[in-house]
Amino acid sequence: MFRQVRFIKYGSLVDYTVMLQRQQAARDALAAGGAPNTVFLLEHTPTITLGRRARPEHILADAEILERMGIRVVETDRGGDVTYHGPGQMVAYPVLDLNQWSPSVDGYLRALEETLIQLLHEYGVSGKRVDGYTGVWADGAKVAAIGIGVRHWITWHGLALNVDPNERYWATIIPCGIQDKPVTSLARLLGRTVDMEEVKARFIRAFSEVFQCETDCHEA
Predict the structure, then answer these.
(1) pTM above 0.85, yes or no
(2) Model confidence at 66, in pLDDT bands (50, 70, 90)?
(3) Which end of the chain is least crowded, N or C, by CB within 10 Å?
(4) Kind and range of the H or E run holding 108
(5) How far apart are CA 95 and CA 115, in angstroms?
(6) Catalytic residue (one of 150, 174, 176, 210)
C-alpha cells in the first residue's frame, strides 16, 4: 500500500496548548477524510504535562518554583503520568490513520520505539526497550518517552526524545512516575552537543523506514 506522510517542522519553540489544538484539528480533519497523515516535529516552551494516569505528587516543585523557572503545568488527554517538555527536546506528534498500517495500539507503540532505536543507532547509541515500560532507554536511563492518544484508530500525541535539554528541569518531577530509573539525553550519551535539525532529519528517515511510507517535509 502506498502511504504518504507529511512532516511539519517548527523552527521556534511552540506553546503546548497551541500545539495540542493543532493536533486535535489535524486529527479531526484526517478522520473526516480532508487531510493527510501528518507528523509535527518541534520543541516546546517549558511545560510539565499531566497524562490521564498522572499523580500530583510526582510534581516535586511547588508553584512558586515552577513560576520562577518559567514552567507551565498542563493537564492533557494522552496516556501516561507526569512528563516534562522543553527546549532541547525533540517532540514528534504523529497524526496517523492506523487503518492504513495495522490497527493495533501495541503495534503502533512498538513502531514508535523502533523508530527511536534506529535513530539512536545512527549515533552509535544502543537504544533498548525495558519490560513493563513504554519508551526507549540507553545505559540504564530513559532517553525517550512515549504517550499517545488513539480515537477510531486516528492517533495524536506521540514521543519526546531528549536531545540536549537543561537537566535541572528534570528535578521538578518524577519523570513518567518512575522513581528508580534516571533520565538521560543524547548529548550526555555522546559527550558532545548534537544538532537538533540533524536529529529531526534522521528521525524522518527512520520513521519512513519503520512505517514504510513516503514523506514530504514543510517548514511551519
Answers:
(1) yes
(2) confident
(3) N
(4) helix 105-122
(5) 16
(6) 176
